[in-house]
Amino acid sequence: MKLTLLGTGTPAPYLNRASSSYLLEIGDDLILFDCGPGSYNRILESGYSFNDITHVFFSHFHYDHCADFAAIALTRWDHLAASGNDLIVVGPSHTRNFIDKLFGENGAFGPDQDARTLHDASIGYFQARGGGKTRPRFSPVVHEIAPGDIFEGEGWSLRCVEVPHAQPYLQCLGYRVDTADRSFCYSGDSSYTEAFIALARDCDVMVHMCHRISGTELNKGAQRSSAGHLEVAKIAEKSRARKCVLTHLSEQINVPGLPERLIRDIQGIYSGDVVWGQDLMVVPFGDIVPKALE
Fold it and tell me: Other CB atoms closer than 10 Å to residue 40's CB: what's the count?
């Protein structure tokens, strides 16, 4: 497994933190978990190609987790020519509706699809990229999954649980991916929950939202829908995750000197490795080993 953090921010606009988005490479598969605003450019900066992406998993449909999907998917389709419709899209309830409202015959990009599959100029570009005489519309393979479901990939499997965030308006999922020797967990957006703790048991790398300083939530609803730094510490410790990556970091805690204090608090509870996430960071799955001095 190779994990690249694309976007470690929130819905707030920042140049140095895109919204939630993560790339997990397993063998020939490149799995995109969420794709909030800014993730399109982060993929370009990461060194990967849009054409490399094989799967997209949505944790939920807040815009800071899905707003760049249309641009990513259409760029991939437009430049991958004949094999552009093999993209696998997986997510909770509303996934099929989301895709249809974007790319269906009467969807937001329906006229774009008409032009790019029927106009002579577009067919010419398609053929120049390796396509044939006719061009298929963008039509990804879509799966809606529910808590407890298992999704099988090539040499990996994925499980999911529901996590508390924006219910009853959005269904929100946390994910775990296992191979023969590695494991990865992603909370999506979530507050403290025993379900995710059980899912993440003994995982190698856990990516969890750390939205605020614990105790500073604006109201009870905010407390129930997102995690502060001490909640993340308890989740990581109880799950026995080997490495905890902090993400979805708000403007409240992006203050010089404050991350060090919060990490010290977390390490008072959690015995594993703590990583303060940054955009384009590649997170190791093994032990953290210092580089040699040069």
Answer: 20
Amino acid at 151: F
pLDDT at residue 81, as a whole number = 66
CA atoms within 13 A on the CB side of 48: 29
CA distance 244 to 270: 9
Backbone angles phi, psi at 104, to 5 degrees: -65, 175
Could you report the per-residue pLDDT of 83-111, keeping only the tens digit for each?
Answer: 667 999 999 999 999 999 999 989 999 99
How much is the pTM? 0.95
Q: In what order do the strands lie in the sheet with 273-276?
A: 150-152, 157-162, 173-178, 183-186, 205-209, 243-247, 273-276
Residues 177-187, buried b or exposed e (16+ Cβ, 10 A)?
bbeeebbbbbb
Amino acid residing at 4:
T
Average pLDDT score over residue span 33-55: 97
Q: Which residues fall within 8 angstroms of residue 166, CB to CB, at 6 or more apart?
A: 60, 62, 172, 189, 225
**244-282 tens-digit pLDDT:** 999 999 999 989 999 999 999 999 999 999 999 999 999
Instruction: Find how far residue 11's CA is from the centre of its chain.
Output: 14
Answer for the pair 180, 66: CB distance below 8 angstroms, yes or no. Answer: no
Among left, alpha and beta (phi > 0; psi -120 to 50; other), residue 38 is: left
